[in-house]
Every structure is written in structure tokens, then in C-alpha cells.
């Protein structure tokens, strides 16, 4: 019990240090999206080792509830809000992502703390792929496409796919029990499938939907043969390419001027 409380305090202290560092960076550079995603990455990396730090779900629930409590409290306490408002709210769009992040961590840990690989890979996708998509898409996005909640970009989706593949493949290769070929094919299926999912999930809900999908795919594909994985990877690739061709070929599906005027989410 004392050990768990000590670890929780250390994690919260590390989170506070990360917030202070990102806040200082934001004040000097005034780049809200980059600052928000730097905090996103820092928090994700801090929470990635949880299966190696806790052997039961209780402490993680306490930790997640503390994060959510602090996020709610900042809406009523100016002293708390002053530290985070510029980083969390500076992007100028409504999102529930900051609340879903700790909820997702608690859910993933509940499902996967006895199998760290199935926790770590979705967490890395949540932490790194989401951030890569947002930063690359908003900075370099030249090929926008409409989504239910606004506009995303081909460049951001490509960054997401590459980062999701690397996160999954390296996790399986270093910590998994399968072969090299299987890890590559599983990573391809997951990266391509999640790229489609992420493209149409907006409002911060990707913080929940994408990692939960990643966990489900990892569990479902873990005992699949290499031949079946090859077929699935080819199917996912065809689905992605089909969507790209359809969006490029049908003018009515391209981002219209009103959608182009909206900030690109990724």
C-alpha cells in the first residue's frame, strides 16, 4: 500500500514537472498545438510503464481519478487554470480528449496489465501517433479532406500510420513472443486499420477509440497465422488506397471552402 502511494505521488510529481516545462515552452514559443502535443507525449510516456509499476488496478484508478479531478477543479480554481489553460485550451477547438486520456489509461490497464505488450503498444499509439498526426497535419497539411467534425489532412494521416506501425512493430519485436514477420504484419494491419478509424473520429474521442481498437486488434491477431495476417494486411492496404482514390476522384468529397477554413485537426 505504501509503495503504491509512493509511486502515485512520484507519477503526479513527474506530471507536474512536465506541465511546468511545457508551460514555459509555450510562453516562449506561442505554438499552442505543439505545446499541447508535447504535454500529451510527456503524459503518455510517464504512464507507459504502469504495468511494471503496479500489479493491481486500484492504484491506477486512484491515479486516473486524480487527473480527472484536477482537470475538473481547474474550471473553478483560477490558480490551477493559469498553469494549464494556455496549453490545453490554446488550440481554439472544443475537445474532451484531456478527460478521455486518463479514462483510457485506466481501461487499458484493466484489460491488459497482466499482458504488458497489449498495454504498451496502444499507449504508444495514443501517445506518439496521435501527436505526430496533429503536428504534421497542422504544420504541413496541404491535402485536406472532410471529416464529421471538421477537416483532417492526408499528411497527418500518413504520419499517424507510420508512427502507429513503428510503435506496434517495435513493441512486438522487443517484448512479444511472435516472430519478426508476424510482428511486421500485425503492425501493418493495426496501423492501417487505425488510420481509417482515426480519420473519422474527432472532438478528442480518438484518445479513447483508437487505443481501445488497438488493444482489441492486438488481442484478436495474436494467434493468427502469417498467411492470414498477409491477407488481412493486403485488405487493409486496399481499403486505405480505395479511400484515398475515392476522395481524390469525387470532387464532392473534397474539403469545401467552408471546411478548408476550419483548422486541420491532423
Portion in helices: over 70%
Coarse shape: globular
Counting H and I runs of at least 4 residues, what is the number of helices? 12
pLDDT averaged residue by residue: 84
The main β sheet shows up as: 2 strands, antiparallel
Element-level helix/strand string: HHHHHHHEEHHHHH
| pLDDT < 50 runs, ≥5 residues | none
The whole-angstrom Rg is: 19 Å
Euclidean distance between termini CA atoms: 42 Å
The domain count comes to 2
Strand content: under 5%
Counting helices, strands and paired strands, the structural category is mainly alpha
Number of strands: 2
**Sheet with the most strands: spatial strand order:** 1-2
Explain the overall architecture.
With 266 residues, the protein is mainly α. It folds into two domains: 1-114, no CATH class; 115-266, no CATH class. It has helices at residues 2-29, 32-47, 50-53, 58-73, 78-88, 97-112, 116-140, 154-175, 180-199, 206-221, 226-249, 257-260; strands at residues 144-147, 150-153. It has a two-stranded antiparallel ribbon. The protein is globular, with a radius of gyration of 19 Å. The model has no long low-confidence stretch (mean pLDDT 84).
Amino acid at each position: 500500500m505504501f509503495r503504491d502511494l509512493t509511486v502515485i505521488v512520484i507519477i503526479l510529481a513527474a506530471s507536474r514537472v512536465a506541465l511546468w516545462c511545457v508551460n514555459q515552452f509555450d510562453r516562449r514559443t506561442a505554438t499552442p498545438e505543439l505545446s499541447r502535443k508535447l504535454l500529451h507525449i510527456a503524459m503518455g510516456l510517464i504512464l507507459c510503464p504502469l504495468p511494471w509499476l503496479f500489479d493491481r488496478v486500484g492504484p491506477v484508478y486512484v491515479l486516473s481519478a486524480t487527473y480527472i479531478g484536477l482537470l475538473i477543479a481547474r474550471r473553478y480554481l483560477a490558480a490551477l487554470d493559469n498553469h494549464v489553460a494556455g496549453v490545453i485550451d490554446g488550440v481554439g477547438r472544443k475537445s474532451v480528449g484531456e478527460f478521455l486520456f486518463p479514462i483510457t489509461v485506466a481501461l487499458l490497464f484493466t484489460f491488459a496489465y497482466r499482458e504488458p505488450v497489449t498495454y504498451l503498444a496502444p499507449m504508444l499509439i495514443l501517445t506518439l501517433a496521435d501527436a505526430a498526426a496533429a503536428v504534421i497535419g497542422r504544420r504541413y497539411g496541404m491535402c485536406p479532406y472532410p471529416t464529421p467534425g471538421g477537416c483532417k489532412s492526408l499528411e497527418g494521416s500518413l504520419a499517424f500510420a507510420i508512427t502507429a506501425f513503428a510503435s506496434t512493430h517495435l513493441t512486438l519485436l522487443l517484448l512479444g513472443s511472435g516472430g519478426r514477420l508476424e510482428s511486421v504484419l500485425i503492425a501493418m494491419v493495426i496501423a492501417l486499420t487505425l488510420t481509417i478509424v482515426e480519420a473519422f473520429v474527432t472532438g478528442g474521442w480518438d484518445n479513447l477509440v483508437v487505443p481501445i481498437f488497438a488493444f482489441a486488434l492486438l488481442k484478436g491477431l495474436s494467434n493468427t497465422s502469417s498467411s492470414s495476417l498477409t491477407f488481412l494486411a493486403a485488405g487493409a492496404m486496399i481499403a486505405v488506397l480505395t479511400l484515398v482514390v475515392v476522395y481524390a476522384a469525387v470532387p464532392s468529397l473534397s474539403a469545401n471552402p467552408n471546411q478548408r477554413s476550419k483548422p486541420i485537426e491532423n
